Amino acid sequence: MQSEDARYLKRKVKGGSLDVHPTEKALVVQYEVEATILGETGDEMLGDRKKCQKIIRLKSLNTNTDVAALARKVVEECKLIHPSKLSEVEQLLFYLQNRKKASGKEKRVVKPRDLTPFEGMEIDEEANINKVEEYVELLYEGMEEKVKGATLILHLARNPVNLEELLENETALGALARVLREDWKQSVELATTIIYVFFCFSSFSQFHGLVTHYKIGALCMNVMEHELKRYDLWQDELQKKTRTYILHFRLWVWVNDPDNQALRKEHEKAFKKYQGLLVKQEQLLRVALYLLLNLAEDTRTELKMRNKNIVHMLVKTLDRENEELLVLVVSFLKKLSIFLENKNDMAEVDTVERLSRLVPCEHEDLLNITLRLLLNLSFDTGLRIKMVQVGLLPKLTSLLGDENHKQMAMCILYHISVDDRFKSMFAYTDCIPQLMKMLFEHGEERIDAELISFCINLAANKKNAQLICEGNGLKMLMKRALKLKDPLLMKMIRNISQHDGPPKHLFIDYVGDLAAQITPDENEEYVIECLGTLANLTIADLDWELVLKEYNLVPYFKDRLKPGSAEDDLILEVVIMIGTVSMDDSCAAMLAKSGIIPAIIELLNAQQEDDEFVCQIVYVFYQMVFHQATREVIIKETQAPAYLIDLMHDKNAEIRKVCDNTLDIIAEYDEEWGRKTQREKFRWHNSQWLEMVESRQMEEGEPFMYGEDGEMDRPDLFYSTDGITPASGAVSPDFFSDPYAQNGDGQHGYDRETNFNIPKHY
């Protein structure tokens, strides 16, 4: 019989598209099955088509798999894939091979749970779409009938199939809106039910116009404001009764009060009533908030909500214990927080303080959405400070061990670590051991950007750097960085090397390894970090001359000092490195003989507008003038002192400071340059004094320093009890060098170069 039936069934399979599985290591094959029933004569009697898919799981696929061979095997074994699609299969497998495995729980978007039937929604009668008119009639009766009619309509609205028909019934929707507007204060059940009906419409964007037309959003805002005030009143009343009960109970310990039992029962009854009211109120708030959240898809509607103080109302609701309500409230705040104005509103109230109690919590969705909100808020400096003040730092650190939440927690902690004030606080948590464990668990895979960025920030603090180096910490980091040539990991190591003390001396063992990385063939970003690490090693016992010779670094330095030979960041690191090795006498002499000083001066000409370049180049001169061999070269064979004199009065204070110190050393060994430096300092100081005098004259409206009779006006500032006092450089040096200027005893003024003291630093 089966074989006879089979003769009349024709089945045809048609191949379709290929794609990768969104979460698993698998291919998804789409295909179509066409089944046709044939009559006895072979004619088609009945046909049907069905779209299907087949999932090909690739458990053996890993980083070492031969993708081409695997693609051929898949095409051979799966008849749904045509051989012409071999190259496409190979491309998809290559994508799967390199796709980073992500935790589904971390990546999923947390949404408030759909509203479920609540207490009071149960009804014996089955709702019928054909009886809507009867249900509308009930809305004109007493309160009990209104609740019944609204509940029956709600049962219909919860089925999306009925929404189109209800939409056309303007009488029913108008009656619901009117009853809600007039009677929402009279019955929480009625208000909750009617808002729930409109919530069903708000779940679909095409019906938002309907909800807006009946002004349900504005009504929900009024309902929220009213219910929050009622909640405050309930809290006050309950606290009063609790205080009365506690006081009475304490007195009863000494005085046996026969009414104590009755008072206890009254307190318990009041508390139960409060709990019942609270449950109903939170049902109402949840429905109203969910409706508002749906309407807030339109940013114009969201702005209207903000103008009605939605942020403050939501933050106030964070005190509740109902976890489903809290998920909704925090979700709403998260949505609002992406706009600056809303974030500022949250900063004005104690949002972070109220959120801190939710971290951690047992409700997974609530914790996840809370962390996401905190991440949005952590972009604000003031709110980051509050996060630290309310004790979120150790709480977030504890979540680093939770696979579901560590990514969000790490992002927030990264933002906190940006502020230098808080870096040291991480040393008093178990954060650093956890991060080091994560780093070493990555194997040869690239480290997550969030993780390595966080580590780089923490390594900038001395205490943290010491913790990182504990045990074999630095050894493991160096081994991994040198093997993978990871510039970000090397940047972390560079930050560790900048701290004086034990961490810096640990690097002596790795000087050779780092110097070996400085070659033209290496990645520039990686070389920059290696150079920066070496430049930080200002260790007295380090033989830099041996390092430069063994790894042939001087020619590399000369090549990189040429303007345009590499990226500015790399050239700058070379200059800093030269400054470090120039502390060594023999190194400085070797660099001077190699002709590197003229190259540095040429670079100074090319980069004279860049303060960082100028400061570091001047520092190189400062280091070299300490040594006799290089001092003679700089003073006698180059124009470096002339450049330093020009830079004495640079706008940058650090450049001025290094220039002054360098010129002071040069002046001690070369009288000619010493006199030139002194004259330039005097000229600059004199011009500054004249500018000051002229500005005062303009302010006071006195064009001349002489009175109408031609006599000099000598203010008291120029005198003391002993006569003329050239104090603090406040008097013009020209006054003292003028042969006609006399002091109180009739003697001529002093020579300006012997009596006017030029300070070394300004």
UniProtKB/TrEMBL annotation:
Residue windows of the ARM repeats: 595-639
Organism: Oncorhynchus mykiss
Name of the protein in question: Kinesin-associated protein 3b
GO biological process: cilium organization; microtubule-based movement
Disordered: region residues: 739-762
GO cellular component: axoneme; ciliary transition zone; kinesin II complex
Molecular function terms from GO: kinesin binding
SMART domains hit by this protein: ARM, KAP
PROSITE patterns the record matches: ARM_REPEAT
